[in-house]
Amino acid sequence: MKYELVLIDLDDTLFDYSKTEDSAFRKTFEKMGFFEVSGIKREKMEENYEKIKKRYKEINLQLWKDLENGKIDKDRLRVLRFERIIEEFGLRYDSIGMSELYLKKLGEGVFPFEMTEKLCEYLHSKYKVGVVTNGIKEVQHSRIENSEIAKYIDKLVISEEVGANKPDKKIFEYAMDYFGVLDKKSVMMVGDSLVADIKGGQNTGIDTCWVNLKNIENNTGIVPKYEVKKLEELFKIL
């Protein structure tokens, strides 16, 4: 199949979101003075911090799933996750201020996978390339603009700016309209999320490739056209 347009997800497909999240979370807590409480040993503070971070990730993951299912909007998500850990752990922080600081630090986190730049350069030499993401707009713009792959991305399509989240086909159709690509058979969606990326691509009627870098078992019933477990495997497909 000769493709004209490749749409690709950002987090956990091109960028290591776990590293981005860990870096931003620690910098946020450092800035808030969490580790500077007098009378408590550093080892104990680190132990408490790890418990909070673990719980935050659980809450955040569920909220992003709720977003994909249309149960919550992004403005609420970005603050609610901090409201919950503040309440659960009795932290004396302002959830809105904490959220704003975290997003700033998140936008500074650029951690591409080893093959990301080479892959993007290759794709850009053959296809129109659009990054399609559900991420928060100011964060994603900052990370792309401060990365080495910016010059290889023709369009950054962010759900917040389009008004539709993956897996809603509207965001994929928006990208196709932007590039002037009408033939669905000439479009491929590449991403790590079976629901947001693969189901979203299928909802739109375009081919899909699941980037399964963590080698997880697929028990969802969502079957992509292709599956890769390393980014370099995409060179054989595209």
Q: Which key terms come to mind for this protein?
A:
Rossmann fold; 10 helices; alpha/beta; DNA polymerase, domain 1; 5'-nucleotidase activity; single chain; six-stranded parallel sheet; elongated
Rg is 19 Å
Task: Give the overall shape, derived from the CA principal axes.
Answer: elongated
Strand-residue fraction?
Answer: 5-15%
The CA-CA distance between the termini, in Å, is: 9 Å
Helical content stands at 40-55%
CATH architecture assignment of the largest domain: 3-Layer(aba) Sandwich
Strand order of the largest sheet: 3-2-1-4-5-6
- How many domain units? 2
Low-confidence stretches: none
How many helices? The count is 10
> What is the N-to-C succession of helices and strands?
EHHHHHEHEHHEHEEH
Query: What's the name of the CATH homologous superfamily of the largest domain?
Result: HAD superfamily/HAD-like
Q: How many E-type strands?
A: 6
CATH topology of the largest domain: Rossmann fold
Mean pLDDT: 95
Counting helices, strands and paired strands, the structural category is alpha/beta
The largest β sheet comes out as: 6 strands, parallel
Report the CATH C-level class of the largest domain.
Answer: Alpha Beta
Q: Care to describe what's here?
A:
By secondary structure, this protein is an alpha/beta fold. The chain folds into two domains: 5-16 and 112-236, 3-Layer(aba) Sandwich (Rossmann fold); 17-108, Orthogonal Bundle (DNA polymerase, domain 1). The protein contains ten helices and six strands; from the N terminus they run E-H-H-H-H-H-E-H-E-H-H-E-H-E-E-H. It has helices at residues 17-31, 42-68, 74-89, 95-107, 116-126, 137-145, 159-162, 169-179, 194-204, 234-237, and strands at 5-8, 128-133, 155-158, 187-191, 207-211, 226-228. It has a six-stranded parallel sheet, sandwiched between helices. Helix 6 (137-145) links the parallel strand 2 (128-133) and strand 3 (155-158). The longest helix has 27 residues, at 42-68.
